[in-house]
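haha ok so turns out i had the wrong file open the whole time. this is the CORRECT one, sorry everyone. sequence first:
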Amino acid sequence: MRREAGNGPSPTYIKTANEYTILLCENLLQNTHLHSNILNEVHSSGLHDLRGVVAVLTGGASGIGNMIATTLLSNGATVFIIDRNQSLLDNVTKTYNEAAQKTNLRSRLIGIVGDIGTKSEAKRLAEEVGKHTPYVTVLFNNAGVLEGGFTPPTKAKAADFVDAFFNNVSEEAFDNVLRINAVGPYWLTFAFLPLLEKWKEHGYGEEGRRFPPQVIMTSSMNGWTKDSDTARSYPYIFSKSAIGHATATLARELLPLGIRVNGIAPGLFVSGMSVPGSTDEFGQSHTDRTEFDFKIPVSQLPKELGGPSNVGGSRRDIASLVLFLLSNWFVNGETVLIDGGSLLVHASSY
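then structure:
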């Protein structure tokens, strides 16, 4: 029996059944090791192990930002959360850092007070984060506001439409919403580029836990809506349309740097924005409200089976999407809709 000796000078020959058995065992061990590596490579514990990851998250003290922050913390990342509310920042960082320590997590939340709507503030925030870390893995441009709401006119008269959409919407509302929701993320993206680039120099993380440098925008289903009932605010609709388009445009712009840009487009998630006054001192939102101005056709897991207590999307829904985007190297320029099917029943350009 002939046995090839790889790249050696000449073939070897198997003369006994014992040698043949040894060869089979060697091949079996090699294949078993290979198959074990394949299984380990795609196991969730490795895909979502964020130890060593450094994230910057705007609007991270409450709402969807709080859901993102706790997801990152729970899976091992260090998270700089930027918010305007100092007392809420203090409560959130203290509460969840203590919880992380009790479960032996080395990850932590670091709070920074900031207003993300200006160029100078974006520069200051990047410099402040840079004092604590030599690199950033991911920037979440998540902070947002909703102003300039309207009550739909009840009569098909021009005067009623002017009153609803013009007289009762201020210039300040438009300026503020666009500045924070759309312009601020532009300034922050470029201010943090050097720190994101440094993540590449760090080797994209540690062996077995390597992640692409990335910017993730929080857009909204309202970036695609044609039915204003889903938002009841044209400043908000305009701002989310803008950030959705910017996500794809900036993804192309940053291709030479190898920095990805993706987005999340939520539908209804109970927060201080969607249900004013619902946020507690720990950044969590709670409501008994079940009726909204738009439809959510997809049902959640029943509460008695462990489903969410609030109507709409859950913390777990946001967490699974965030972990997917963070760990995926092949998605770029995409905004992922997570709306419970609302845009299946409301007119949209999606």
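Residues 17-41 form the longest helix (25 residues).
again sry for the mixup
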